[in-house]
Amino acid sequence: MGHGGLKGPHDLGRSFVGRFPSPRRPLKCPAIVRRDDILGDNNSVGAAWVFQLSGGSWTQFGGKINGNDAVGAARQGPVALSTDGSVLLLGGPGDHANVGAIWLFNLSRPGPILTGINPSSALAEGAGFTLTITGLNFRNGASILWNNSPLSTAFVNSSQLTATVASYLISSTGTASVSVVNPDGGTTANATFTINGAILTVTSTHFGDFLYGQNGGIYTFVVSNAAGALATTGAVTVTPDFPVGLTAASMSGQGWTCTSSCTRSDSLLPGTSYPPISLTVNVAQNAATLVCTAVRASGGGGYSGVYDPTKIVAFSPCDINTDGSTNVTDIHTIMNEALGKAAPVHFLGNNEKVGVLDVQMVIGSVLGRGCGAI
Asked: In what side-by-side order are the strands of the sheet with 174-181?
């Protein structure tokens, strides 16, 4: 389909038809119509006009570009345009006393501007989704950045881009920064993407030190959801990881289904906790003197993990007489200290005082409930 003649503004002198650059591909970037005859525009120095092809129509791109006749008269010469339309070379072989001259022009493009992201939030541990970015001055080849890492981006037009956000990028609650970078390095300001969900916390506690060869060391796990978070959705799983020297004997908790891990699917509201989980472990004779049992809670839109350092000792603190077992003799000794009949030296409750609590701890150990069980 033909187009009508493209005419430059005749604001300085007479204009004569010049040349188009010879494109190596269909003219989608700016094309040049040049007027630089000896009797032409810009007082016969020469000039150029840039036109942009968009949607089948040519429109002038910016104002007229005038050559600078600093030495002599311009003659009709070549026009060249870079592939991306950002650099223009305008030749004047008759200029500079027929020695020739060229003028080089750089096109200053406006930088990209981000005006919106859709969606702007998602649930943690949700499925992947398509992110749509709207704005201005996007260029073909632009990339959407997620926390400064590029996503595979589709160029829709100069005001819209799309990209797929994988599920692993929204695996936990928090925020992500989203921006756009053009091929020339121009970058937008950051927008914030919010990853909503439960905010889980898991704690692990144990009382006292464990013994080498002990059967029945107990850990207690509690899973909580922070106030102001979203309620959990779906299954929540609590999984312990044991160091060398500890093995699980049993694990249970009200409302939990437990094997090597514990799971439940009822929703945990913000500011509340699930019933505790009790884990019983056996200690090997060759266990390290300090071990760390790890436990993690995941699912329901949240995640948390914690380590519980545990000392392994040769004798129980309740083995007052250090004869390898807790027995009636240990009860007698601690009662005398509590009653003031002997000097108080075994502060089992860590309160610098020997009293009823210390006596109860020794009795509990003798009854097989472990030192510290009351």
From this structure: 121-123, 191-196, 174-181, 143-146, 149-150
Query: What DSSP character marks residue 358?
Result: H
Same domain membership, residue 307 and residue 223: yes
Same domain, 211 and 166: no
Give per-residue pLDDT as tens, 186-229. 999 999 999 988 889 999 999 778 888 888 889 999 999 999 88
**pTM metric for this prediction:** 0.53
Residues 6+ apart with CB under 8 A from 77: 36, 46, 90, 91, 92, 93, 94, 100
Exposure letters 262-285 (e unless 16+ CB within 10 A, then b) = bebeeebeeeeebeebbbebbbee
- Give the 3-state secondary structure percentages of the chain, helix then strand then coil, rounded to 5: 10, 40, 50
Q: Are 215 and 301 found together in one domain? A: yes
**Helices and strands (H and E) in the chain: how many:** 3, 26
As a three-state string, the secondary structure of 131-172 is EEEEEECCCCCCEEEECCEECCEEEEECCEEEEEECHHHHCC
Provide the CATH number for the domain around residue 354: 1.10.1330
* Alpha carbons 160 and 144: distance in angstroms, whole number: 11
Q: Both 204 and 271 in a single domain?
A: yes
Collapsed DSSP state (helix, strand, coil) of residue 41: coil
Q: In terms of residue numbers, what domain contains 342?
A: 317-374
Q: Check whether residue 306 and residue 204 sit in a common domain.
A: yes
Point out the least confidently predicted range of 42-56, 105-119, 272-286: 42-56
DSSP 37: -
